[in-house]
Design goal:
heterotrimer; A mainly alpha (598); B mainly alpha (218); C alpha+beta (256); B: 218 residues; mainly alpha; 6 helices; C: Immunoglobulin-like; 4 helices; elongated
Chain lengths: 598, 218, 256
């Protein structure tokens, strides 16, 4: 292996002696196994985050009512004596719900699961650039998760300053009543950051250096493109958070005053550091889902993605612009109003690439041949719900209007439309679409459609009215809105929302059942059940170690569906062209000439 | 060219960045490290502008001459690192080992001197904590009014402390590479491991030059 | 079964569930309004409500057009035997058109926002005759501090009104927010006023009441255990009544 060649390659499947159980399932370096590990862990944390949300909604829907007997016994008197949720526990609930969802469910699902599963297979690589670092990146996550879970059991309970952990509230147990819990929250996230950074550097290196011959940049499937941009965001944003978390940890433990005013510290500095990370973070949470949707819609509409180049440019634009909008979280913070105005402009501008993507997804459906499969339904729901989330963002992007809706349920509605309506439905699209490749079997279509329909219904019943709660002036993170006379009339609506959430949560049982049942009893899928074009679908389901028997060669882009000259309505990327030059050239010597079909 | 000929041609991945994986990975990792130090240094800059009264003139509290010598040591260690890399590019195993060892020893010295400096400073009351901050200036054995404010100590220890941690980790990695070199793991054909630890080491050195300038000289 | 029949049944079922739960929980219909509540009580508050309405119209139109288009596409282009999808990669013209239109709309809203933002937030635009009140925010109460007869703050004749902010009608008022412990947020929903109170900073926020009455003061930033209890009242007096109230409180303060 010479260091003067550009990359190292193996031709052919890597011949290994049979690995022990531990090497194969526990400390695996195979990206596909690591993806499964991330998947199972993340789904467990998604379940936990959901249960915490159900508890929040119990309090808001049925304030002061004891929890039902069958779960009351779980909670000690420090959390819910007699089953009645305490205000301190409520503050922990809102904090930990968001923390587990963002850091332990969504991020691992986006990057850990799909980054690992899709990238090598879609670009024609045998594995990631650094398989052992990949393994380490996974194992850091349960360690961090354990620390975060442990924080529930220490004296004072889990962190209660919000997932945004604003200073000075978060700097001392004197303000929150939480001591060790806040410290463990910080330690857990500091540790978790390394997982993200190591994973991201693996993805970036792999995409740059390990694409199969002919896989030029503009023949890369959009899911990989989205994960590539996301990885850059992770690489550059997470270290900022880590720095801030460390400084806050020092404020809490060794008595520094970075954010504590009594020592000339600046509470706003925390906000700037947090949101400078925090805004790229939300794009980390949505861009991969956009990538999944960009794979599913073309494939199941049997039609090329509308505007492939624009989609790539939009992804990159969002990646860049996401760095200069953070101040819109701080419009009402006391920040300089002129600075606030510049953030209004940048925030409005970042709506444009998202709109471009939305129009392109719609353009893909237009004159398509749309198959109503579960993945497609989730993908189209993503578009419909992302439109709502994006449009509601316009209100708060206008700083004067934000005066009224900042820190109200209008914001809660917006963020859940993009994170649940967007990201979660995108994840459902991704899981139902790529499950066959991962496990060799199809998920059940009937159950999938029922789960989709009920989820869509209950989700909107729960979150759409939250816009109205915000318009009526209901604040966030509020244990008992009935303390305010002007909010008392909203109790029935809050109860409506809570029941809808319970039904939404219960519906996920269908998904869990489908997922687990299909592992054993699902219809065997074969290599390419969806008749998709990407290299991923040329492998067996699941693919063997090393993925491809020999390194594939790519002749065209990934969205050549329904080509008029072909009988089949799809055209895999690695199929050599026919003798006539209709649509592709081999690229043994990589060429950058424009090619019809690119 | 016929399809059959194409199909059997030597398949190599796309050229990408024209650097091998480990090197690309290290560059990318160093970019994330830049962002980490940006958050710390950015905090320092913002605090220094917002509360200049917390800082003293250079040299009043901090030992600039000692740290200047230490900086020189660190730069020397980058030179020895370059020599180590040059050695293995020629296939000179003994040279590689010698220069790696030199780098390790100088790097450890840097950390050691910094530890000594920390002990002296905290003895003079220059600490990160708000409540116990009472910097009385270099070599001043007597109690006196406190110089500057707690942000000085807090930002100083945050920046130099995390830098020192990065140097320490670098030294540990260098020891690993040194042991590997004793085992003959590197050669003219494969010296990737040496090159990437070299990149990390030079980065750590560059960060220090920046820190030394803004913390000790300004 | 026919596609439309199936979809119709599905929709009917969904509607039944929604209406059923609505009937059971029985919320107020007015709570579903997307228009700002009809309770605005400040001068710039009405401008804020108008801006809200403009954005509501624009986003509303976009919402209706895009969602209906989505549904139409889903129905019209669903899979039918014998029909193939159209092999088209996109349209540069379409990209330019919809990018430009979107950009113009959002930038328009941005610039439209500037005037009102400056009016409310620019420190130089705080009316010169604004009556100053210091508001000390602490866990978990609002202590409105008045200057007393000497007109100076931090003198012995200052007096505090705990959790009740008294102000005159038709007179600009500037509240100087001072947080003593953690970040709180001074939220007057009916006035459309909100400003974070950050410890270590004194943040002015001005407004002018347009009618008398009693209104809500709330904390809108998580500030600890008692965040949900940190409510208060704003009492807007006629100018004469406000003078009376001031004088009686000043007299008490001097007696202390």
């Amino acid at each position: 292996m010479s260091t003067t060649t550009a990359t190292e390659t193996h031709a052919g499947p890597v011949e290994h002696h049979e690995l022990s159980f531990i090497r194969k399932y526990i400390f695996s370096t195979d990206h596909k196994m690591i993806a499964r590990q991330f998947l199972f862990s993340a789904l467990m944390f998604l379940l936990l985050g959901g249960l915490l949300a159900v508890m929040i909604r119990w309090q808001l829907g049925f304030p002061g009512r004891p929890l039902p007997a069958f779960i009351q016994w779980i909670f000690p008197d420090t959390m819910a004596p007699g089953g009645i949720i305490l205000p301190e526990f409520y503050n922990s609930l809102v904090t930990m719900h968001a923390t587990f969802m963002v850091f332990f469910a969504l991020m691992p699902l986006m990057a850990g699961v799909f980054g690992n599963l899709l990238i090598p297979l879609q670009i024609g690589a045998e594995d990631m650039a650094f398989p052992r670092i990949n393994m380490v990146s996974f194992w850091i996550m349960p360690v961090a998760g354990f620390i975060m879970l442990a924080s529930f059991f220490v004296e004072g309970g889990a962190a209660g300053a919000g997932w945004t952990s604003y200073a000075p509230l978060s700097t001392s147990g004197e303000w929150t009543g939480v001591y060790m819990g806040q410290i463990l929250w910080l330690v857990s996230l500091i540790v978790l950051g390394f997982s993200s950074i190591l994973g991201a550097l693996n993805y970036v290196s792999t995409v740059i250096n390990m694409r199969a011959p002919g896989m030029t940049w503009f023949r890369i499937p959009l899911a990989t493109w989205a994960l590539f941009v996301t990885s850059w965001l992770l690489l550059l944003a997470i270290p900022i958070l880590t720095g801030g978390l460390l400084l806050l940890l020092f404020d809490q433990t060794i008595g520094t005053a970075f954010f504590r005013p009594e020592g000339s510290g600046e509470p706003l500095l925390w906000q700037h550091i947090f949101w400078f990370f925090g805004h790229p973070e939300v794009y980390i949470l949505i861009l991969p889902a956009m990538g999944f949707v960009s794979e599913v819609i073309p494939c199941r509409s049997r039609k090329p993605i509308f505007g492939y180049h624009s989609m790539v440019i939009a992804l990159v634009a969002i990646g860049f612009l996401g760095w200069v909008v953070w101040g819109h979280h701080m419009f009402q913070s006391g920040m300089n109003p002129l600075l606030g105005m510049t953030f209004v402009v940048t925030t409005m501008v970042i709506a444009v690439p998202s709109a471009i993507k939305t129009f392109n997804w719609m353009g893909t459906l237009w004159r398509g041949d749309i198959h109503y499969d579960t993945p497609l339904l989730h993908a189209v729901a993503f578009v419909a719900l992302f439109i709502i989330g994006g449009l509601s963002g316009i209100f708060m992007a206008s700083a004067p209007v934000d005066i009224y809706i900042h820190d109200t349920y209008f914001i809660v509605a917006h963020l859940h439309y993009v994170l649940v309506g967007g990201s979660l439905f995108g994840i459902f699209a991704g899981i139902t679409f790529w499950y066959p490749k991962m496990f060799g079997r199809m998920m059940n279509e009937g159950l999938g459609k029922v789960h989709f329909a009920l989820s869509f219904l209950f989700y909107n019943m729960a979150f759409f009215p939250m816009h109205n709660l915000g318009v009526q002036g209901m604040m966030r993170r509020i244990y008992d809105p009935n303390q305010y006379e002007y909010l008392q009339g909203l109790q029935p609506l809050n109860t409506f929302i809570s029941i809808s959430i319970f039904l939404f949560a219960a519906t996920q049982i269908i998904f869990a059942f489908n997922f687990l049942w299909s592992l054993r009893y699902g219809k065997v899928s074969g290599n390419n059940p969806w008749k998709s074009n990407t290299l991923l679908w040329t492998t067996p389901s699941p693919p063997p170690h090393g993925n491809f028997p020999e390194m594939p060669t790519v002749y065209r882009g990934p969205y050549e569906y329904s080509h008029p000259d072909r009988e089949e309505d799809y055209w895999p990327q690695d199929e050599p062209p026919a003798t006539s030059d209709a649509g592709g050239q081999p690229a043994a010597a990589p060429t950058l000439e424009p090619i019809p079909g690119d | 060219m016929s399809q059959a000929a194409v199909a059997t041609m030597d398949r190599k991945p796309m050229p990408g960045m024209m650097v091998y994986n480990k090197k690309l990975g290290m560059w990318v990792f160093l970019l994330s490290e830049v962002m980490f130090f940006t958050s710390l240094i950015g905090t320092y800059v913002i605090m220094r502008f917002a509360h200049p009264d917390h800082w003293t003139d250079p040299g009043v509290v901090l030992n600039v001459p000692l740290t200047a010598v230490n900086t020189f040591f660190l730069i020397c260690s980058s030179v020895t690192m370059v020599k180590a890399f040059a050695a293995i590019q020629q296939g000179d195993q003994k040279g590689l080992q010698r220069w790696l060892l030199a780098t390790i020893l100088i790097g450890a010295t840097f950390v050691g001197i910094q530890a000594v400096e920390y002990i002296a400073l905290s003895g003079e009351g220059f600490v990160p904590a708000l409540d116990s901050y009472h910097a009385v200036g270099r070599g001043n054995p007597h109690e006196g009014p406190s110089l500057g404010g707690p942000l000085y100590g807090a930002t100083f220890y945050a920046m130099t402390g995390f830098h020192g941690a990065h140097v320490s980790i670098g030294v540990l990695c260098l020891i690993f590479v040194y042991i590997q070199s004793l085992r003959g793991a590197y050669s003219v054909q494969d010296y990737e491991g040496v090159e990437v630890i070299g990149l990390y080491w030079h980065f750590v050195d560059l960060v220090w030059i920046l820190l030394f300038t803004i913390v000790y000289l300004i | 079964m026919n596609f439309f029949l199936r979809m119709g049944m599905l929709l009917a079922g969904m509607l039944t569930v929604v209406i059923g739960l609505w009937v059971i929980t029985d919320p107020e219909w007015v709570d579903l309004s997307w228009v700002m509540p009809d309770n605005v009580v400040s001068t710039f508050g009405q401008s804020l409500d108008n801006m809200w309405l403009v954005i509501l119209w624009i986003t509303g139109v976009v919402f209706v057009i895009t969602e209906i288009t989505l549904v139409v596409f889903m129905v019209k282009y669903r899979h039918k035997e014998g029909r193939k999808a159209e092999y088209i990669h996109g349209s540069n013209k379409a990209e330019v058109v919809w990018t430009t239109i979107t950009f113009v709309i959002v930038i328009g809203i941005a610039f439209y926002s500037k005037g009102l933002w400056d009016e409310i937030r620019d420190p130089d635009r705080i009316p010169a005759n604004a009556y100053p009140i210091n508001m000390i925010a602490t866990q978990f109460e609002w202590n409105a501090t008045y200057a007393g007869a000497d007109g100076q703050f931090d003198t012995s004749d200052d007096f505090v009104s705990r959790n009740v902010l008294h102000i005159p009608v038709a007179q600009p008022v500037v509240v100087n927010l001072i947080a003593q412990d953690v970040i709180h947020s001074f939220f007057l929903p009916e006035f459309r006023v909100k400003q974070d109170a950050v410890p270590g900073m004194i943040t002015p926020v001005w407004f002018e009441a347009t009618r008398t009455g009693e209104f809500t003061l709330a904390c809108a930033e998580l500030c600890g255990l008692g965040h949900y209890t940190m409510g208060g009242t704003v009492i807007v007096h006629s100018q004469a009544d406000f003078q009376d109230w001031l004088e009686s409180r000043q007299a008490e303060a001097e007696d202390d």
